[in-house]
Amino acid sequence: MAAIIISDPTRTTRPRKATAESLWSRWLIISIAVGFMGLMFVLPLVIIFQEAFRKGWEGFVQAFDDRATTHAIWLTLKVAAITVPLNTLFGLAAAWCISRFQFRGRRFLSSLIELPLWVSPVIAGMVYVLLFGAQGLFGPALKEHGIKIIFALPGIVLSTIFVTFTFVARVLAPQMEAQGQAEEEAAMTLGANGWQMFWRVTLPKIKWGLLYGIILCNARSMGEFGAVSVVSGHIRNKTNTVPLHIEVLYNEYQFVPAFAVASVLALLALVTLILKTLTTTQRGAA
Amino acid sequence: MSIHIHHISKTFGSFHALKNVDLEVKTGELVALLGPSGSGKTTLLRIIAGLEFADAGEGSIQFHGTDVTNRSAYERKAGFVFQNYALFNHMTVAENIAFGLRVMKRPERPDREDIEKSVTELLRRIALEGYGSRFPSQLSGGQKQRVALARALAVGPQVLLLDEPFGALDAKVRKTLRKWLRQFHEETKVTTLFVTHDQDEAFELADRVVVLHEGDIQQIGSPQQLREHPKNEFVADFLDCVMI
Ligand SMILES: Nc1ncnc2c1ncn2[C@@H]1O[C@H](COP(=O)(O)OP(=O)(O)OP(=O)(O)O)[C@@H](O)[C@H]1O
Ligand SMILES: [Mg+2]
Known about the structure:
The complex is a heterodimer of chains A (about 290) and B (about 240). Chain A is mainly α and about 290 residues long.
């Protein structure tokens, strides 16, 4: 769940070259790939659902009849509801800057955007603890004003934003750069102001890429474990998100509930996969 | 509406794309901007439209006596036809043409029926009746070019800037469109500045021709003046070269 790889959506068709491998080696490569996928992705998925329904449908439903579980689900939805819109805006702004303006540090900004992909989420969480924790840099000042960030919702949101801010920007920046801005310029000479230009010209051009980025961002913000784990403090009914709650249940040997809740995340991943495929096809067609 | 360009310079980094350009296009005139590739034609046109800004300094641009040097493109509303059309690919031909009318502010914006009427009228004018519901990707190059022109004309611009409007088309279509543009200009008398690197095109269409070379204006004059009295070697050479 944690590992969402951004594939290059422009590479949807495989060129058939004359140098294609012989039949049997092609079969070998295909079976290795399919076998690996089956072992690494499909099997775990099957096991999750199998374990979730070990005590039948009733056992499954019962798992959700629990205050801590419903709270965790609510909290995760809340975090996503704050994170995704913010990161959509941020991603749009960043992609706009990178693709439309020439400025010093443009290269730097565009590699900074990939930071969450190569910084361990745990470290991201730690940074916020060091900044806002009780012993942290701003800790005393925050305490004085009665503001709680670490071990509370703001901390969880902050670290989730950090982990997921890459998705929208990373999908959009290359797309907007490739499209250029001739149409925007045409809109301006026709008397459109910045707002009209964005809504009528830019947005329709990038909407599938944007949707694709939002879907990925959403999936990751609901599934994030590492960064959130550091800042949340694992307080039941308070700061446990769904992934953290699953770990708690599992450690308490409540296997059916643990897998039942996990199956919800797995389902989210499947829905994401389907939506991602659909948006990629749409982008290819557009 | 007249255009006054006064002491305009443009540098990209250390490269001087335009050097102290002075030019006047009179109301209702059709002026051709002629010059080899890279001479700064597009740059000058973009500066007039407000898509690019000239170097800060004494330079200024006036539309009919009003200083527009610091105004943005959407305030200047110069009709602009791009070298590569720049049609809105996600809109139909009719929506493309109607765009400029639809983004107008409330009091000026025509109501829906009037917009539809103007679009139909423009489609007839560019001889593309019945093409309104097509998308740009379903048009030929010459058709796209005409749609781009109609889109620019829909808002009734006072100034028309055409960047190699027929550049990407074959000789025959060029000739037809050339005639069409001449006729159109005769009817409407919109002040027009158009870029070309085709000497025949410039001479056939324009009231006056401006020869640009390395960001410098070499000569301004009627086709006849240029042919008979080229001011310097470059002009003579450039005009001759193209003739062959
Ligand atoms: N954004 C830019 N950054 C740097 N240099 C530029 C930029 N735009 C134009 N130039 C340079 O300015 C010069 C003039 O360019 P311009 O596009 O105005 O030429 P042109 O006369 O329109 O040529 P063509 O006939 O090939 O279209 C060229 O040498 C070009 O490389
Ligand atoms: Mg040009």
